[in-house]
Automatic annotation (TrEMBL):
Protein known as: G-protein coupled receptors family 1 profile domain-containing protein
Every G-protein coupled receptors family 1 profile domain range: 62-328
Pfam family, one: 7tm_1
Keyword vocabulary terms for this entry: Membrane, Transmembrane, Transmembrane helix
Lineage: Eukaryota, Metazoa, Spiralia, Lophotrochozoa, Mollusca
Domain of life where this protein originates: Eukaryota
């Protein structure tokens, strides 16, 4: 039974070497592979132990600040609720990346601990993927919420409430847990009496080493729920939002003056750029890992090269969970305004004053927000709250 520790987002060199049969007549190939593996180890160390933790720290701080902003009275909405859920999922992903990947680079000896083996098999490995699934599908939930508010204006007030958003988050979490259930049966700890002290503290279960697990990772995880399906939904809905805003602007051009037309076009262009950036940023950051994993699962091509690429591609998951805060700051004027209030209240230690101010602002703006019934107003609001 293979006792190699396999990180959720990377493939160990031992695993790759085991996938390539080296015959007696290919000693030079083995030597070359060994040299390639030394370079690969260095790349994995840089990405997991140096660059990764930097993004993790930034991402944790950014997600915490994002949650504080979206919890403010003025920012509370169905969209804000989805974003709070996404921030929690992203923080969970970042924490478990550190616990299951970065920690192995800092201390290789921990892999031989039976305690770590039990943690990795039953907690670290499956929960990492659970948070990853939740983060991706919460993004889909946010996109659906924005689509309803822009394209189904008459139904938006009824369908897009905080209560419904929490129900949506709960349903998505349950479905993600069910789809992720096989990861709880992929590894098992190795009892101390069955191994040497230097051997890994966990191993594949019978299911984990079967073709069923490979098919699950390839067709269910990579080819469906982790990449193509959510990305297709996000892209389609964003394109429909752009189309609706463009059509409405054209219909209202007759009633607008030249300055109004100019502002509408500027808002439309900003929305288009932002939505497409969001869509393709998600694809660029998450797709490379799935592509590399597919090649490795098929055991085709130069595995050393794929491992090097994997070391870089896995950073996409960390970056994807770390940049939401910065996208909010770039795209949302209201978010920046509320963020300044949060930072000032934290700096001064007077959260009650900040909350009171926020409630007053919410009261004064509630009448206006309830009368927003035109699509141009909805599209402008969507720009402020648009998310990754």
């Amino acid at each position: 039974m293979n006792t190699t520790v396999l990180s959720p987002v990377s493939v160990t060199n031992t695993t790759i070497v085991n996938n390539v049969s080296v015959t007696d007549g290919s000693v030079e190939q083995a030597v070359a592979m060994g040299m390639g593996m030394e370079i690969t180890d260095k790349i994995h160390f840089v990405t997991s132990a140096i660059i990764g933790p930097i993004f993790i720290c930034l991402g944790l701080v950014g997600n915490i600040l994002s949650m504080l902003v979206w919890r403010r009275w003025k920012m509370r909405s169905s969209t804000g609720t989805y974003l709070i859920g996404q921030a929690i999922a992203d923080m969970g992903l970042l924490v478990f990346f550190m616990l299951t990947d970065s920690i192995l680079m800092f201390r290789h000896s921990i892999a031989s601990s039976s305690t770590f083996g039990a943690f990795y098999a039953f907690v670290g490995y499956p929960l990492f993927f659970l948070f990853l699934l939740c983060s991706i599908w919460f993004t889909v939930g946010v996109t659906v919420d924005r689509y309803i508010q822009v394209c189904w204006i008459n139904k938006a007030k009824e369908m897009c409430s905080e209560k419904r958003a929490w129900i949506g988050l709960s349903i998505i979490t349950i479905l993600c847990f069910l789809f992720n259930a096989p990861h709880f049966a992929t590894y098992e700890p190795v009892p101390d009496v069955e191994r040497k002290s230097s051997d890994a503290g966990l191993r594949f279960t019978e299911y984990g080493s079967s073709t069923g697990n490979i098919n699950y990772e390839l067709w269910v995880q990579c080819m469906m729920i982790l990449e193509p399906v959510p990305w297709a939904i996000i892209l389609t809905l964003n394109l429909l939002i752009i189309k609706r805003v463009t059509t409405t602007n054209q219909q209202m051009d007759i009633k607008r003056g030249s300055s109004g037309k100019k502002m509408a076009r500027k808002s439309e262009a900003q929305l288009t750029r932002l939505l497409l950036t969001v869509t393709f940023t998600f694809l660029v950051l998450t797709a490379p890992r799935c592509i590399m994993q597919c090649f490795i699962l098929f055991k085709s091509g130069d595995h050393v090269v794929f491992s090097k690429a994997f070391a870089i591609a896995k950073l996409g998951l960390v970056i994807n969970s770390s940049i939401n805060f910065f996208l909010y700051c770039l795209s949302g004027k209201r978010f920046r305004k509320e963020l300044r209030s949060v930072v000032c209240s934290l700096y001064r230690g007077d959260s009650r004053v900040s909350t009171t101010i926020s409630m007053c602002e919410r009261t004064s703006s509630s009448a206006i927000s309830r009368t927003k019934s035109t699509l141009s107003e909805k599209s402008g609001y969507s720009i402020d709250l648009l998310v990754k």
